[in-house]
Amino acid sequence: MQKHADIIDFTEITPSANIAVDRHGARAKCLQRLVRMDLPMPRTVALSFDAVHRIAQGKSPDISALMSCFGPAPLVSVRPSSADFEWGGPASILNIGMNDARHAALCDSHGETAATALYLRFIQSFAVHVARLDPDMFEPEEPSAKALRAALDAYADETDDPFPQDPGRQLLEVLRSMARAWEGTTARLLRQAKGAPADAGLGLVVQAMALGLGPAESGSGVIQFVDGSTGQRRITGRYLVQSQGRDAIAVREGAIFLTRDPRGASLEDRCPDVVAQLRRYGETCRLNLREEMQIDFTIEAGKLWVLDAVRVPRSARGAVRIAVMLADEGIIAREEALRRIEPRAVSELLHSQVDPAGPRQVIAHGIAASPGAATGRLVFGSAAAQASAARGEPCILVRRETTPEDIRGMHAAAGVMTERGGMTSHAAVIARGLGVPCVVGISDMRLNRRDGVLITADGRKLHEGDIVTLDGTSGQVLLGEVAMLEPALDDAFQALMGWAEAACDIGVRANADTPADAQTARRFGADGIGLCRTEHMFFEEDRLTVMHEMIFADRAQDRAAVLARLLPMQRADFTRLFEIMQGLPVCIRLFDPPLHEFLPQSREGVRDLAEALDLPVSDVQRRVQALSEFNPMLGMRGVRLGITIPEIYDMQARAIFEATIEASHNGDPVVPEIMIPLVSAMREVELVKTRIDSLAAAVRTERGVDFDYRLGVMVETPRAALRAGDIAQHAAFLSFGTNDLTQMTYGLSRDDAGRFMGSYVKQGVFAEDPFHILDAEGVGELLKIGAERGRASRPGVTLSICGEHGGNAESIAFCRAAGFDYVSCSPFRVPVARLAAAQLAL
Ligand code: PEP
Ligand code: MG
Fold it and tell me: Mind listing the UniProt keywords for this protein, alphabetically (predicted)?
């Protein structure tokens, strides 16, 4: 039925009516589907976005024609219907049409208590949501003649007008108030934050009331057939006798179970037929809407009405299980199941999470650098973290920023927080690799190590031993212990990942430095290791000392002696990685960081080192000073170190080749990939390649065993991207290290950006943190140039990305479009990257 009044139209929701999500909203469309499935729904009329917009502007529909859709003297409700349920909307208003006359009539038919309750409820919601009066004056009350009189008087006093008695006027005012609320600035900003476009429209649905109050069995409830937080099949919900709307969910006491339950009374005890009917409707919805729905129902004098149905609200874990179940039952295709899961949500499954439903007291904020949450006692140094771990007490390590010396502390800690740093600072990269929750760049807290106190923005002083919870997913630091949700790597997750792997058309490897990382990478289904940062292998206590000895070796023969001690350690490292990866590709990056990163930073550290090396403190200090650089990230690191002190790369290459022989002998054949970091000129590659080739030849001859290997280059300076054509002549693969490439393209320190990144993003200088989401316009341009030039000079060259961007959905889309072979990211981001990549391929 289509009616015209002036220009504002409305449409009765019937099976054949012309109702569309983009004109009438998702609720109106869903209600039409319920009608088509023949569910018993009260008569309902939809107003389009356009109609509602005109109403907000002061135009009126033909109210009496609208009212007459519902028969004589109707009571109706109005509910919002935007294009996406997530965008919210104004509160629903029930019982429109209640007035003195209707009250009197209902007293006869439904009894005075029910009639008064209905009238009171309408006065309260009209006063608060439409007339915008103080809610305190219209608190819900027990229905009585006195309460009703008081509410009517309060309304009249506050508005200087008696409570409107004309149902048409009531309805028009409700429609206008809801329309205007939607167009207000606050509501617009709120929904824009949830992804709504600035001009998102609101539709409204007007529905005849099913009363839920009155004689015989009357009441209302909400039912769903899966548990939204686990996704397990189980009926949940509540029913409340003599109630309306969502009272059954809102009340603390009085609501009863839906199905028979040893804990108490149930609707099934009272009305088994109604529950059987609801079960059938749930199944009908599941099959026809291809979704698990939550159904709002009302029983009016024994008759069941379905008023509304929405997707069951769900956690990430629930979403995965529901999608997999629907696909397993053939209700949706596997592709559809993959499409329904937000890749970011998958990362929630891999870690503990702060329970979103629980209370939290936030004491500081920073950049969410590694997801998951952990509770522990504060410790301000790595030694304390290790001591805490030894006692079996979880701890949260707090540092101004972390250095390689903190690695052991980070291993021992349940979570890491730093005052400084950004998405690719040391703490962030290491924590993601370890799967440890981490928040960096917490500029609203100060660590004063001397006094052993951590001071928050509101002046709160925390000491070592105090308990905090770190939420690396939101970037918040919370006071004390809070409720958590455990990780869920269950069968549903595994099934979804299997489907994603089958659908993916770009490889997903892991950045893995240790056997533990490699095992995680395998568990999450990585296609290999795309970046093994070998320097991380030297942070263990015994090795750090050997590294120190190497750095302090003055003469080549001394250095050779130390490297000879490191060789078996590295060989064992690589053998283990190859074994774990079982023939999958393993890309090993030669030593990269500036040597001084391996030197002690504190006075105690210098003293410990002097002791270990049996040297005077002054000697050690002098050496540390000699190695210090004004700008170490742009100094003696990467291939520059490899060319200046070639014995280090020689040792690493030999270790890789010997491990290749060993691992291939015992297991799957290994073709190692060796990657040269921080290249900016072709000649650098030539020099390193010549030495590595001759080392390979030497090892082959010594061992009498042949093996293959691939040598490649890490493109992480702008010049390397521009000269990728030359460089590719000597490189079987090019892997874009977008952390350094972003740093150097912007001229923006990856370790210091955290200080102002928030303010830059807030003011729109950068749309996003470029260390987090690949800057497609700038850094991306270099990637495209590098890929094109590399491919032009060497058509089969393998292209990949191994910076932190490798785990980000937008960046993966960019790499896939640019024809890259694979992305590589922290092991814990492999499933996220896999799902994002699969969705792109669907
Ligand atoms: C990079 O620079 O992108 C990279 C992967 O290397 P690292 O983070 O170790 O500098
Ligand atoms: Mg780098």
Answer: Kinase, Magnesium, Metal-binding, Pyruvate, Transferase
